[in-house]
Amino acid sequence: MDDKYHILKKYFGYSGFREGQEVLIDSILSGRDVLGIMPTGAGKSICYQVPALLLPGITLVVSPLISLMKDQVQALNQAGIHAAYINSSLSESQISKALRLAAAGQYKIIYVAPERLETYEFLQFARLAKISMLTVDEAHCISQWGQDFRPSYLKIVQFIHSLDRRPVVSAFTATATEKVKEDMICVLGLFDPTVLVTGFDRKNLYFAVETPKKKDSYVTQYVLDHKDESGIIYCATRKNVDAVCAHLLAQGIAATKYHAGLDAGARRQNQEDFIYDVRPVMVATNAFGMGIDKSNVRYVIHYNMPQSLENYYQEAGRAGRDGERAKCILLYSAQDIAVNRFFIENKEPNPDHTWEEIEQIREQDEQRLLSMQYYCLTTGCLREYILRYFGEFGTGRCENCRNCALEYEETDITQAAIKITACIRECRQRYGINVTAGILAGETRAKLREYGVSRYESYGSLKELRETEIKAMIQQMLVEGLLCVTNDRYALLKVQPAADDVIQGRRQVILKKPKTAAQSTEKGRSSQSSKLRRSDILNSKGLDLFERLRALRTEIAKEEGMPPYIIFSDKTLVDMCVKAPLDKSDMMQVTGVGENKYSRYGERFLAVILAYTGGMREKYYFGESPALAGKK
Ligand code: ADP
Known about the structure:
The chain has 28 helices and 17 strands. The chain is an alpha/beta fold and 632 residues long. The chain has a seven-stranded parallel sheet with strand order 3-4-2-5-6-1-7, sandwiched between helices. A six-stranded parallel sheet has the order 8-13-12-9-11-10, sandwiched between helices. The chain has a two-stranded antiparallel sheet with strand order 14-17. The protein is globular and about 85 Å long. It starts with a helix and ends with a helix.
C-alpha cells in the first residue's frame, strides 16, 4: 500500500519530511484546503506532489511562469511521475494532444498557466476530468497588495466555480505579509484552510553587506575566488547588467546575462546556459529569477541595493535551495537610494487603483525602501533584522552573518544624540540629513548660508566632529527608531517619541564601528563558515570522488538534455561520497535516490564509486559520523 512515506522515498528518494510538510499533506489528504507559507527552498513542491500521487484523480497546478513549469515537469518525469504542462510555449496541436492524454488519465499532475483556465478547450477537459486537487503556486500573485499581482490569477476563482465538484484547493507562497495572506484566503475562497507558516529563517544562508570602493573589482574577485561555483549577480539597471557581465567575460569568466532589453530568444538561451551550468554565473536585473529552481546556486550578490527587503529576501533566497551553505552579499552605496527612489517615483500606477490607493502604495514603497536602507546600515545581526521585518524573532546573534562575525568598537553617543535631537527640533524638522549634519558641524557651504542656519543655537554644537561622523550618528538614531525621515524625496528628519527616553536619561545610544584590525578576524571567520559547506566535509579523496561523480552527472545531463541538478543534487553526490555505496541497497540509502532515479542512473554511479574505491570501505570524509551528510 502506498502511503506518504513510501511515496516520498520511492519517487523523491527522501527518508523524512521537513518541517511543516506533513501537516499540509495530511490536511490535503483529509480533503481540507491548505495555505502553506514557507520560504524559498523549504520544500513546498513536495507538499502538493506527494498528495497528488495519493489522491484518486488529477492535480492541476496553476503556476505563473513557463520556465518553472518546464523545470518541475522535467524533475517529476525524472522521478518517474507522469506529469505535463500546458502553456503558451506549446502549439495548439500539442495542447490538444496533451489534453487528450490528460483526459485519458495519462497524467497525475498537470501544470497550467492561469490564462489557460478560461479557454474553451481547457474548460471542456476540466468538466469531464476527475480533478482531485487544484494547487495554486506563487499564490501571492492573487493579491493586489503584493508586488507581483497578476490579474490572470483572479481567473482561478471563476475556474473553481465552473467545476461540478470542487476539488481540494492548496495554495503556496513565500510571501507572508498579513494583507497578502488575507487576500490569498479570501480572494481564492479557501474554505476553512489549514494555514501553515514555517519560520522564515534560512539557516544555510550567510548574509553580508559590503561597501567596496570599486564594486566591479569586488565582484570579479569574488567570482574568481569561487570558480567552481554557480552564482547570480543582481543589478538595478540593464546598463549595469551589461557592464558587469562584459567585465566578467573580459576576465575569462563564463558569465551570461538576462534583462528585459534582450529579445526573447537571447533570454531563453542565456537562462538555459545558466541552468545547465554551461555558464554558471548569471548577471541580471530582477526580471530574472521567478520560477528559477536551480538548486546549486552558491552565492547571490546584489550589485545594487534592491527596493525592499521583500525583494531582497526573495532574490537572495535563490541561493542554497539545496540546503547547502550559500552566501548572500549586498554591495551598498548611498547612490542606490537615489536610483530606487527614481524607480518608485516613476512607477506606472495600476489603472484599476484609485488615487488614494496609488498614494498609499507609493508611501508603502517609500517605507519599504527605508527599511531596506537600514538593513544596509545596521551594525546588528543581519538575520535578526530580516526576521524581525517579517514579524519573527531570531536569537539576536546568528553567528552566520558578517555583522556577527565582525568585532566592533562601541562609542557612547548619547550626548551627541541629544544635541542632534535639539537641532532637528530647533529647525522645526525642516531639513534632511545633509543639512542637519552641516548645521551641527558648523559648515559654511553656500546652501547653508542661503538657509541662514548660523542663527540657530545648534549651529556648530558638534563642531569637534566631522560631518561624516555626525551622519553616522544620525543613521544610528534612524535605525534605532529615535528619528525617522518623511516618506518623500525630501526625506526630512523628524524626531520620534522614543528620543525623549534619551533626552531624559533613560536610554543610551551606542554607535558600533567595525575595528579596522578586525577585518582579518572577520575573514577568518567567514571562511570558516563557508568551510561548513557540505562538500567541505569531504577529505581530499572524497573530493576526488565527488569530482568524478560530478563529471558523470555532467555527461548524463548532456546525453539527456537535462540540467545536471535535476539528475542528482550536489547534496546527493556528497552523500554518495560519504556513504560510498557498493550495491543497490546501499545506494538506496543515499538521500535523493528514489527507485526511478536508481533504475535510470544508479548503476552508472555505482560503477564509478566501485572503480574508485576498489570495493573497499574507506573513509572519504572528515569527522566521526556520516549522518551529517545524510540528514538535513
Ligand atoms: P520551494 O518551492 O519551497 O522553494 P522546493 O520545493 O523547490 O522548495 O524544494 C527545495 C529543495 O528541497 C528541493 O531540492 C527538494 O527536492 C528538497 N526537498 C524538499 N523536501 C525535502 C525533504 N523532505 N527531504 C529532503 N529534501 C527535500
